[in-house]
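Researcher: Here's a chain I'd like modeled. Treat it as a single chain, no partners, no ligands.
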Amino acid sequence: MTINVNGELIDFSEPKIAGILNLTEDSFYDGGKYSSMDKALKQTEKLIIDGADFIDIGGQSTRPGADFLSAEVELKRIIPVLRQIKKEFPDSKISVDTFWSKVAEETVNEGAGMINDISGGNIDENMFSTIGRLKVPYVLMHMKGTPKTMSQQTNYKDLILDINYFFSEKINELKELGVNDILLDPGFGFSKTLEQNYEIMKNLDKFAIFNLPLYVGISRKGMIYKLLNTTAQKILTPTSALHLYALEHGAHLLRVHDVKEAKEIIKLWEMLR
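Model: Modeled as a single isolated chain. Structure tokens:
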């Protein structure tokens, strides 16, 4: 199971890590920490040293209730940092977290190698055709509504079957447009109740039917700290526990804030395997 990133085949026979670089002021965990160029570059260096296979750059918050930023504002945040990262760390593999096709196009032209779209192509109708033209790997995530409205859209006939139906339709659309490198993200925390998040976790292996890499983003999320009645800052150990569970049940790529600890979890899991 491989994807082609900037001409290099990434093999998922060993799990990979995407280190999160939020360039936002209001992200739920680290908003504002890396909004300056210097801080963003220092964090990128740390993520790479700690073992990140990808740097996942986000220019707007997608926490519950968040408003949209325009593609233009997002680009003003991302492009200068992306250019500097590619200059200082030319071998780095950059994923851009966006639902705007314009942001996807311009960041790929600047060296980004993968697009991570929380909306599964539902917010910007031009996203799929843009990805088909750019020929870059695409993270297809399940979400209903938008970050602003998703908390009210948690009704499903059958949660796992509904997500798989969504994936099936979207995969067909993407493949018709020539997109071959697709990763699947069931969308923890997006249009899901706390209990639904754990239902997805318990059924991760049900998404293996597509024979595509499974992308898991649970790092320090509300599904953990709300259950434990604590804060995002205090749940590194519980996050690590769920990362181990996710690996055991089919995860191929973990999107994390804490790369060093995730790398250690993968090493332990591989020994147990």
